[in-house]
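Researcher: Please predict.
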Amino acid sequence: MGKKEDYSEYLKEKFPPKEAFVKRMESLIGKEDTKRFFEISYTQTPISIRCNTLKISVDELKKRLENYGWKIKQPFKEFPEAMVIESKLKPGELGKTREHLLGYYYVQEISSMLPMFVLQPEPGEMVLDLCASPGSKTTQAAAMMENEGTIIANEVSMGRVGILTTNLERCGVMNTIVTRKEGSAFCNKLLKDSQIKFDKILVDAPCTGEGTLRKSPGTLQIWNINMIKKIAGTQRRLADSAIKILKVGGTMVYSTCTLSPEENEAIVDHIIQNYDVEVEQIALPLKFRQGVCEWEGKEFSKEVKKCLRLYPQDNDTDGFFVSKIKKLSDKGCGR
């Protein structure tokens, strides 16, 4: 047995999944698929980075990294800036290169890139990243917008604001205003005291992290149903407040790195039931599964089928959930 297998066995013994979690996954995807899910959850995610096109071209970065002897794969023709490093790197090597220190690339898991691939912010638009730190998606948006237009990057934690601003500076982002306030309170303040509305909003909500077990196996120890219910309440408030400050005709992406329907489809269903919106179909070059329309006796709108679920065993990634919501009118949104 090699070192990888030894380490995987060590993690299985140290962080066994709780029986309730296993049963929930079996209800979602069946016993055989659940077995595959937990098998891959004790392995490491492939190393992926995103080229920061604000500072360097994709071809030039690829050439520089290959000069280090790194084998670079670009898995998506549509998104050449997404790169997977197939070489085995030394500890710390990824973050010590001149290219990383200069902000030429951002270390970012493939699943983390998906929300902005879906949102597609464009130069000149007004964009809100409601839960922005550490800045992976904010810096990605700035690159897609070519540093034109305006991004509001909001974060509630002062410590995480520091990380966010450091990453923005390193990546040469110049079109972003950083704010610090609890997300729903921030949106409600804008709604009450300003005329500001956004073309596009990302609500990459805090969650229980069921999709991130490959890098955070300790999540298995703290996982519990009560935590899911508590966080779902926060997520609902964030989505509620964000949709109100979205322009009519604008797009909101709601995403999480968890697999719990209470934190995903239930939130999208709440938005569908209370606002004049349309869930849009998403096309991405990965194997996805559609959103679930029923969970533990509760039925959701058939529209949630258009949401996408990314399971780690399907693409050798982290787990993820992403939805794309178009606002049709201000009905239910107050002033």
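Model: DSSP finds 14 helices and 15 strands in the chain.
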